[in-house]
């Protein structure tokens, strides 16, 4: 059971709707795809979606790590594969995803069976959809359009100006009332004074969580921020390992952990992080980068089989103009996601040459 061939494919995808977060405006994204073929004919595919501010690696870093892996792994047995170094989590996620896909396909079963559930992904799950940093008018226009498409859970990006963030969320609540759910992602943009403003302005607005309000490296500040608001605080950029979860739990205050396969390094590490969060009394959310539906499908399989996952924020594939795996995830009229039927991650034919 040795590796016969590995190929890596890079696709740049313009976004249909560019968006702004606390530290950049995003109009195009790059995904790498790794295809692993064994000598006995088994094949698995994985996706890497690097993002320097979150995964800690550049697009070039991630591709280089996959290229090194693809050369070093040839003629190795599966249990001997030389994984990409840990500092390249999206590259690790791609390899991990491909191996899970291959294992499930060899059994003739969907990937969720590797976690013990045959039909778990056949139940549609609501996802939040992101509203980038924009003016109040632009936010309303975008929210109306998304609501008409069936979305009713908005995650609002903020962190530049807490007063503007408060106004935008209050405006959304006033316009839609209880027809929508709201959350806020500050992307590390707040200090404690900002959190106090947040509490004063949004404490009564049924905001389900505020994501990473303070800098990712200061866990004590994050814990203190959580104590300054009744809105549940979620850690995102602060978490890349199960040990990070334990450190956040020790500091106290934080109620939720954002698990992103690309940030954590794949399904195997995500499973350990979810378990550690559950043991520490914290719920989890399955989040994403701007990534192919192949990776979103993997996250759906994971979320459907882990009871500690309370939220889905899996909209990163929706605006990709070029995605070879777009048909692996469908969206119903209630803004709910459903993974396609099929073995492994559900793909049926390779969309690119393995040469």
Which descriptors would you attach to this protein?
355 residues, alpha/beta, Enolase-like, domain 1, TIM Barrel, 2 domains, eight-stranded parallel β-sheet, three-stranded antiparallel β-sheet, 14 strands, 35% helix, globular
The CATH fourth-level homologous superfamily of the largest domain: Enolase-like C-terminal domain
What is the global morphology? globular
**First-last Cα distance:** 21 Å
In terms of quaternary structure, the protein is single chain
In angstroms, what is the radius of gyration?
Answer: 20 Å
What's the helix count?
11
In order across it, which strands form the biggest sheet?
5-6-7-8-9-10-11-12
Might you state the CATH topology name of the largest domain? TIM Barrel
How much of the residues is beta strand, in percent? 15-25%
Helix content: 25-40%
Report the CATH architecture of the largest domain.
Answer: Alpha-Beta Barrel
Largest sheet: 8 strands, parallel
Which structural class best describes the helix and strand composition?
alpha/beta
CATH class of the largest domain: Alpha Beta
Q: How many strand segments?
A: 14
Average residue-wise pLDDT: 94
Written as H for each helix and E for each strand, in order along the chain, the element string is: EEEHHHEEHEHEHEHEHEHHEHEEE
